[in-house]
Every structure is written in structure tokens, then in C-alpha cells.
Amino acid sequence: QKSTKGSVVLGYVFRHLNLVEIDYFGLRYCDRSHQTYWLDPAKTLAEHKELINTGPPYTLYFGIKFYAEDPCKLKEEITRYQFFLQVKQDVLQGRLPCPVNTAAQLGAYIIQSELGDYDPYKHTAGYVSEYRFVPDQKEELEDAIERIHKTLMGQVPAEAEVNYLGVAKSLEMYGVDLHPVYGENKSEYFLGLTPIGVVVYKNKKQVGKYFWPRITKVHFKETQFELRVLGKDCNETSFFFEARNKVTCKHLWKCCVEHHTFFRVPENESNSLSRKVSKFGSIGYKHRYSGKTSLRMTRDPSVQLPRPDQSIERSRSKTYPKRTQQKGSENMSQITTNGENEGTTKIIAPSPVKRY
Q: Which parts of the sequence are annotated with region: Disordered (predicted)?
């Protein structure tokens, strides 16, 4: 129903996925111009004008809204599994770039989680090529993944997934929510909202970083976005950026307010910085983040986690025709796909989701 609150829709999804550590996740949707938004739990579907204009039907995408700084410390295996699936997709679709050696390590953990221990009778030449790990995947990477997979004997899926997240969390772009903006002289920048603060990129290089505890104000007017930051000398400095239009500027502001509220140092921590920054919470923002903060998620005694006897149903990854080099009749079944004539295997990677 259009009168249904976002929180009700989210509740259905969380129950379906059997998630309790729910505040890290959300439902995202796109408007007609491909700008993405998060479903607001406090609003009805009808109040999400950009969503209503796209349907019916209305399409929402489940995903991580706030990336835990250390996903290995999430309390439940099922939560870590959802993080594993999301980060795996981030790498595959190019949102989380990684060097080849890291990609090989990550790929080996994926294979170990999916197929278990290496077995020379089951895992014949080219078995890794049936899976997709990165954009524009090369055979050299698949060979490296196979070599590493052979060394991971004994790791159960949950263990392989935690090891995967342990490597992925150290990548520079892990958990970075990128927003395009303009600086002085219309030069292009990206503001990245991360678990530790706001990072500024220019020409793919990091040129600034502002930690959440030191950000005292987030403000926007028309297309101008302001970040006010407390310096080491306890003086505040404002940094201004231009967004493409009013809609994207408001969206950036909203995301930034929510990230700051979720990840900031709690107001009752007894240090001068926290006391100075605590006034941020009293500013009369029209937009509020209503969920638990990151700290409350880790300290909340109301829910005893992990729940006992949780069983997790893991889904299989999409597979593709095996990359083959051998010729001969014994390989014809591998290199003939969809009833086509004999020929080389077509390796078709899934088309990436547009990067917003």
C-alpha cells in the first residue's frame, strides 16, 4: 500500500532474511534520472515522491547502508554473511577496486566458502573460471586463485567469509559512499562518506579527510554543501562544495547527517572534543536518523547475540561456461553452449550496476 510506512517494508525484508543487526542495512531505489535514495523508515511509500514516480511496480534494492568499520566483529554469522555478499558484489562491479594480489586472495576465500576444500577429482582444470570476481577478469587471476585455494584446507564457509572481510576492510575504498561535487573553478571532486569520516578525492587521489568526531556541522543551501570541521587548534573551518543540483545536494546532506549520527563519538564520552562536538546533536535538523548508532549496536544489552542454533542457508553464485584451452572431443561438452555450434567458450561477465 502507498500508505505503508518504510519501517514496515524494511521489517518484512529483515524477517525474511532472519536479520537482527538490522541498522547497518537499508532499501535503496532509483528515480527516473538514476539518482539513488534510501527508503526512509519514518515516511510512507507515498511520501517518497521519487519512488512513486517510477511505478508501479516499485523496485527496491536491499544492501548495506552503513559499512561496519570492522565487519569481522559483527555479532552474528548471518550478518557477516550479508556483508560478505555485499562486499563481494562491490568488488565485482568495480565499486571496490583492489590490486591483483588482493583480488586473488579474496577470490580464493570465495571459492573456499562456495566449494569447500580443494579436491583434484572434483575441481578439474579451469574450475575457477566458472566464477566472476572482478571486472575484466583475466586467466592469470584465476590461476592465482586456484593456487591459493589449495592452501585453505579446513576452512568452513563462515571462517572463509570472515577472512574475506578481514582482507576487504583494509582496502582504501571499503565502505566508501561516493558523491560527485565541484570545488573552486568548477574542478571535479568526490566526497566519500566512510565509517571513519568524510574523505575528499580529486583525480582518484585522496586530498582531504575529516573525521566524524571533528565535524561540527553539515549544512546545505540550494546547491552549496558545507562541512564545518574542528581543527587541532579548536578553531572551526568551513569547507564548501557545489553539487550538480538541489536534489543531489539535499541527498548528499541527508546521507552525511545519517552517517555522522551513526558513526560519531557518543556525547557522554568525557573528553573536551566530544563536549565541544556534542552540540551538533542539538542543531534543529529537519532530517533525523532514527535507528541505533554504531556504538549502541555493539553495546546494546537488550538482545542477546549471537542467537543460539542459527542455521544459515547460503545461496550459490552465478556460474559461467568454463574457460577451456584444450581441444578434442572430450571437451566438446564444455565449449558448446546453449546448443550452439562448436567454438570457443563465451565468457560473459554480468553487466555491472550503474555507478552513481
A: 296-356
CATH topology of domain 6-169: Acyl-CoA Binding Protein (1.20.80)
Please state, in angstroms and as integers, the Cα–Cα distance from residue 345 to each residue in 62, 107, 129, 316, 322, following that order.
Answer: 33, 21, 11, 22, 7
* CA 286 centroid distance within chain: 27
136-167 pLDDT tens trace: 999 999 999 999 999 999 999 999 999 999 99
Report residue 126 CA to chain centroid gap: 30
Domain range summary for the chain, segments of one domain joined by +: 6-169, 177-284
Closest C-alpha to 166, from 82, 25, 69, 98: 69
Average pLDDT, stretch 223-248? 92
What is the DSSP annotation of 318-334? P--PPP----SGGGHHH
Residue 251 gets the label, from left (phi > 0), alpha (psi -120 to 50) or beta, of alpha
Ordered strands of the 224-230 beta sheet? 205-211, 197-202, 188-193, 177-182, 236-242, 224-230, 215-221
Fold of 177-284: PH-domain like (2.30.29)
d(CA 29, CA 54): 10
pTM above 0.85, yes or no: no
Q: What is the CA radius of gyration of the chain?
A: 23
